[in-house]
């Protein structure tokens, strides 16, 4: 009898919980969905000028950031954060703190990691070698820096946190290589913004594992010409895997970028 009452109580509580969720409109967190991290202290500088032209290209391999959808609000990460390129595409909210240079009316700005801020061992970590390990540091584009602080400050303490990357459209795949080697730059990744593993499938092959080259690029040593190509992508942060079927047609070519209709959230 007691066991039956306990079971009924559990069912009532469970039913009430789901009714409460439906009423307030907040469904449970879906597995694989990226959630913001805690705020953490770091420092930030900037590079380039107001045009952000110095930020184009970069270690992640995104090329022209304006054309490829990343805009001017970007940052180069110290190697501690860059994680050998696995942090490419990740998104951060950054707010200026503990400095008279901070704009008090700006809560934060959001940037995408598109570059590496390399160590400078010729300078002390607290005097010029801002990106020396183990420091966590953001070398922001000047337009992004100017949204949270007066640029004349040079360096400011900041609080930062990882946030979901909000992207329009699906993941994009930019091809390089030759007939025997396919190099793919993965762009416009939503959710965690990062990639852990990737596979390619030709219309005449099974899934072929691609190795991490550098930044946001993955490679496969295979003959894939004349085949439609699909890609399987796993998020570094959430471990979620999605498949982009038939992204590139049979007459795909290097130097071209192909868009899918799937993305992480």
UniProtKB/TrEMBL annotation:
It is found in: Secreted, Cell wall; Membrane. One of its GO terms (cellular component) is membrane. The chain crosses the membrane at residues 7-25. Residues 57-170 form the Expansin-like EG45 domain. It is a peripheral membrane protein. It comes from the Eukaryota. SMART domains: DPBB_1. GO terms for biological process: anatomical structure morphogenesis; plant-type cell wall organization. CDD domains: DPBB_EXPA_N (cd22274). Its main location: secreted. Residues 180-260 form the Expansin-like CBD domain. Keywords: Cell wall, Cell wall biogenesis/degradation, Membrane, Secreted, Signal, Transmembrane, Transmembrane helix. InterPro entries: Expan_Lol_pI (IPR007118), Expansin (IPR002963), Expansin/allergen_DPBB_dom (IPR007112), Expansin_CBD (IPR007117), Expansin_CBD_sf (IPR036749), RlpA-like_DPBB (IPR009009), RlpA-like_sf (IPR036908). Belongs to the expansin family. Expansin A subfamily. Causes loosening and extension of plant cell walls by disrupting non-covalent bonding between cellulose microfibrils and matrix glucans. No enzymatic activity has been found. This is Expansin.
